[in-house]
Amino acid sequence: MKDPVFTGLEILAEGLRPFVARRIDVVLKNPHLAKEVSSWDAQALMVFIWERWNDVFRSELTFLERSLISELREFRNRWAHQDVLEEPDIYRVLDDIERLLKAIHCPKADSVRQLRMESLGRLWTDERKARSLDQKARLVWPYVICGACALALNTAILAFGSSPWDWILSGLVFLGMMRVAYVQATRESLQGPGPHECSRCGRIVYSTDCPYCSPGGLEHPPSPTVPRSAGQAETLISGAV
C-alpha cells in the first residue's frame, strides 16, 4: 500500500502550485517567481504561503486555512523525519489537505477525499477490534470472579461438610454462582452508548466507563436533593430549623 501521507502531500502540491502562481502574478507582478513555483514541493509552497501571508494571501484565505497550513507543516516535518504517524494522525493530515484544497476551489480535493475515506475505514476497523476485545473481556470477567468464589466456597464445604450433603450443597453453590455470572454478563452485553445503569454501582452514567467506579472517581460529591414542590421545601426548611 502506498504511503497515504506522501500521496496526499503530492496532491496538495499539485493543487497549490497554480493557486500560488496566480497570486504571485496578481499581487507581486513577478512572472519569473511565478514560473519557479511549478518546481516547488508541498513544503516549499506552505512555507511561502505562511511567510507571505499578509501581503499575498490574506485577502484570499482565512485564518482557518492559515491554521491548517501550520498544522500540515508540523505533520509534514514529523513524517519527513520518519516519525511514526498513527492512523488518527494520517486521517487528520488528509482531512486538513482536503479542507485546504476546497478552500482554494481545487478539484483535486476529491482525490484526497478518497484517501481520507480509506483512512476512516481503517480507523473504524481498528475501533471495532478494540471494542470487540473489550466486550469479550467484559463478558468473561463475571464468570472468572464467580467461578473463583464458587471454588473457594466448595473447597470449604467439602473440607468441613459431611457426605452426601457437602456434594449437594457444593453443586448448588456452583449453579448459583454461575447464575449470578450469567446475569452479570447479560447486563454487560446489553450495555451500549447513551445513558445506562452502571453494573457495579447502579448509578446512571453517560459514558462507557463509570466515573464513580473509576480510580479517583468524581472530585466533587453529588449535589444535594433539590425540592420539587413547595411542600417539600417547607419540610426541608422546618427540619433545618
In angstroms, what separates the terminal alpha carbons? 75 Å
Q: Which sheet architecture does the biggest sheet show?
A: 2 strands, antiparallel
The chain-level mean pLDDT equals 83
Assembly status: single chain
Strand order, biggest sheet?
Answer: 1-2
Helix content: over 70%
Assign an overall shape.
Answer: rod-shaped
Helix count equals: 9
Report the uncertain regions: 218-230
Could you describe the 3D structure shown?
This protein is mainly alpha-helical and 241 residues long. The chain has two domains: 104 residues, no CATH class; 74 residues, no CATH class. It contains nine helices and two strands. It has a two-stranded antiparallel ribbon with strand order 1-2. Strand 1 and strand 2 form a beta hairpin. The protein is rod-shaped. The relative contact order is 0.07.
What's the topology here?
Elements: H1 4-28, H2 31-36, H3 42-51, H4 53-57, H5 63-80, H6 87-103, H7 109-160, H8 165-190, E1 196-197, E2 204-205, H9 230-240
Antiparallel strand pairs: 1-2
Defining key terms:
mainly alpha, 241 residues, two-stranded antiparallel sheet, 9 helices
Short description:
The chain is mainly alpha-helical. It has 9 helices and 2 strands; from the N terminus they run ααααααααββα. Helix 7 runs antiparallel to helix 8.
